Amino acid sequence: MAKINKEDNQAVASKNKLLWLLFSFFLVAGIGLNYYFGSVSWAIRAAAGIVLALVLLVVAFATTQGKLALGFCQSARYELTRVHWPKREETIQIALRVIMMIAAATVLLWVLDNLFVWGMSWLSKQGGL
Question: What are phi and psi for residue 115, nearest 5 degrees?
């Protein structure tokens, strides 16, 4: 295992700070230029915004945090290929079971609510049997 010395850590930290400063500059400049050129066609401004977004992504993914985020996204995408996705029939059956359970719980809660209302009105002598 290679040792990372203090100078290497400082160099990486300095590079990250510079890249985030560059990212911030491009972001603020892009927003400012979008307002400044507000009278220009929206299609041209949208195209410039797309180019700016791509530049911002490149700069962000060049940082240590960006590389970690990119690695996480790649791992998550790989894990999605390993997931067992249910077939259409299985999905419909589970959805129908959930709907039936919701309907049964609704009816049960309605009956219990009416029983409690009847009981409270009977206890307070305002109605009931």
Answer: -65, -45
C-alpha dist (Å) from residue 56 to 15, 21, 43, 70, 104: 16, 11, 20, 14, 52
Is the full-model pTM beyond 0.90?
no
In single-letter form, the type of residue at position 116 comes to F
Contact 59, 21 (CB under 8 A): no
Q: Any idea where the domains of the chain sit in the sequence?
A: 6-81, 86-129
State the CB neighbour count (10 A cutoff) for residue 52.
17
**pLDDT by residue (tens digit) across 79-101?**
999 988 899 999 999 999 999 99
